[in-house]
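$ ./design --mode recover --in tokens.txt
reading tokens...
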């Protein structure tokens, strides 16, 4: 979807050093720093050696207190007796997370269920290093994390990735696939007795549901924080380690940016992507990137990706890529080494006149594009895709890119104050 709109004047990105890639909101927000990264599969040579227990290094010597969000809904549905907590389920009674098994809070039980599936990542490139988190997808060793963690914010397409599992073992990982358009990546380790995380769904979530984030903020693995789900469908604009040569997302000044590891220069050419995300107020800090957001039964509902802050620290504004989208991308990365994304093929700007106050106004329908054969004209306002509302160009771009290439969608359009629907097949963003 060639969705282009007026670009705001650029400001110089901050030179502050970070332990790992982060995103934060400042009082005078800078534009996203530039970056270099590539699509598709990237492999890292793996030296064969037995896993060993070591003291997990905290990479970098200073950290600005801001990070890609780590938020999760937590709290297992349990029965209470009087004023005491419930007893732990038999399947987690041996968990090292529990000292009292007869008085367990919902947050405790959710964290105990999910924690064995959470890993800590240490990433090193030629001139940069960083850390982050991830979740185990299957017994074959596939791990889901953020693209910006694996590529060090776009600085390295073939960084060396080490993974520490919940039992303290350390393994070298290979990169299975990178997807900068969703900021997701899949890596793989050779290990036994892995505990895959249980998949949840965002369809059953309510605002106010308990949220639990698990990850390694500032290198402190196994950290658990608790909050609530604040918003189910927030659109944010973040810096991307790679975007198409002709971006499919509207260009706009964004309050979110990727911070870079200490003593590194921002790469050039970094663009923006738009994401529809869950918002929670669980405390998130650098190192939570790529870690899970889990529901009240310890099931995955999101992958932590960003925070917004005016103090360079957690202020309760964290964002996670919804599990349904993350699961689809992860599956394609595992099967094909790359993921596909839908494209609409229009140039758009924000709507706002006497007929409609929100949506994406069509400036141009790209010739021979996916929308060219549809009943779509200049000045039409797109206000919905299937059952999702479109509030502005960013939300349209984020929604369309969530679909696999060649998907069929129903588009809701307003023309001269009259609303109608149009069914079309999306193209492929490459």
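writing sequence...
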């Amino acid at each position: 979807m060639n969705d282009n709109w007026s670009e705001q004047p650029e400001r110089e990105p901050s030179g502050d050093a970070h332990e790992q890639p982060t995103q934060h909101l400042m009082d005078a927000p800078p534009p996203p720093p530039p970056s270099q990264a590539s699509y598709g599969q990237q492999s890292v040579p793996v030296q064969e050696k037995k896993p060993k227990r070591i003291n997990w290094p905290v990479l970098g010597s200073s950290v600005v207190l801001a990070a890609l969000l780590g938020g999760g809904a937590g709290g297992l549905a349990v029965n209470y007796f009087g004023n005491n907590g419930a007893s732990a389920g038999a399947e987690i009674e041996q968990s090292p997370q529990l000292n009292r098994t007869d008085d367990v809070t919902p947050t405790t039980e959710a964290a105990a269920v999910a924690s064995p599936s959470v890993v800590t990542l240490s990433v090193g490139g030629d001139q940069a290093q960083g850390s982050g988190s991830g979740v185990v997808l299957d017994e074959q060793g596939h791990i889901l994390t953020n693209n910006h963690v694996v590529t060090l914010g776009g600085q390295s397409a073939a960084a060396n990735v080490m993974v520490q599992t919940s039992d303290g073992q350390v393994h070298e990982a290979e990169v299975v696939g990178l997807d900068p358009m969703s900021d997701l990546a899949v890596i793989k380790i050779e290990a036994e007795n892995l505990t895959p995380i249980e998949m949840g769904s965002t369809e059953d979530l309510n605002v106010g549901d308990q949220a639990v984030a698990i990850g390694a903020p500032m290198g402190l693995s196994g950290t658990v924080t608790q909050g609530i789900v604040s918003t189910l469908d927030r659109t944010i604009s973040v810096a991307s380690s790679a975007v198409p040569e002709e971006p499919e997302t509207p260009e706009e000044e964004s309050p979110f940016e990727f911070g870079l590891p200490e003593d590194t220069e921002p790469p050039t050419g970094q663009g923006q992507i738009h994401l529809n995300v869950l918002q929670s107020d669980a405390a998130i800090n650098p190192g939570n990137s790529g870690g899970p957001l889990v529901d009240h039964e310890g099931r995955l509902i999101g992958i932590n990706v960003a925070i917004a802050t005016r103090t360079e620290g957690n202020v309760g504004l964290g964002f996670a890529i919804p599990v349904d989208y993350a699961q689809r991308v992860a599956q394609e990365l595992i099967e094909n080494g790359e993921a596909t994304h839908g494209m609409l093929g229009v140039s758009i700007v924000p709507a706002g006149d006497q007929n409609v106050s929100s949506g994406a106004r069509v400036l141009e329908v790209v010739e021979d594009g996916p929308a060219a054969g549809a009943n779509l004209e200049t000045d039409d306002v797109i206000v919905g895709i299937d059952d999702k509302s479109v509030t502005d160009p960013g939300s349209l771009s984020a929604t369309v890119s969530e679909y696999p290439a060649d998907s069929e969608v129903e588009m809701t359009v307003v023309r001269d104050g009259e609303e109608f629907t149009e069914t079309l097949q999306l193209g492929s963003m490459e």
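exit 0
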